[in-house]
Amino acid sequence: MYQHPDDLHRARSVGRAAPAEFAAWLAFQEAVDREDGAVPRRYRELISVAVALVTQCSYCLDVHTAAARRHGVTAEELAETAFVTASVRAGGTLAHALLADRLFAQHAHPEARGDGPSDG
User: Fold this and answer.
1) pTM for the complete prediction?
2) What string of DSSP letters covers 16-76?
3) How do the domains of the chain map onto residue ranges?
4) How confident is the model at residue 104 (pLDDT cuts 50, 70, 90)?
5) CA-wise closest residue to 63 among 92, 97, 29, 86
6) Residue 82 DSSP SS3
7) What is the CATH architecture assignment of 33-109?
C-alpha cells in the first residue's frame, strides 16, 4: 500500500542496512537509466511504467510516470501503454488457464502423472 511519497527517501536508510546489495542495485539502476542506450530513455520509462503496473508498485509508478513526463512521453502514450500492459497481463492469465486446464484433466487420472498412491 502506498503510504506516503516521502517513503521514497527511506531507500537510503534501508540501503545503509545492506550496503553491498544497495550499491549493486544503484549501479544497476544507473545502467538502466542511462541516456545512451539502444532503447531511448522515453521508451525505457514506458517499459518501467508497464512493469510497475503489473507489479502494482505505487512507488515505481510515482517515479517512472514523473520520469516519463520529463522525457517527453505524452498522456496518450501513457494511456496506450496501460492498455497494452493490461492486454499482455490478461494473456498471461489465459496462458496459465491453459496450464490449469491440462492439470485439471491430469488430476482425473493421477496415475498418468506418476503421483498416484502407489508412488509414495
Assistant:
1) 0.78
2) HHSHHHHHHHHHHHHHHT-SSSSS-HHHHHHHHHHHHHHHT-HHHHHHHHHHHHHTT--HH
3) 33-109
4) very high
5) 29
6) helix
7) Up-down Bundle (1.20)
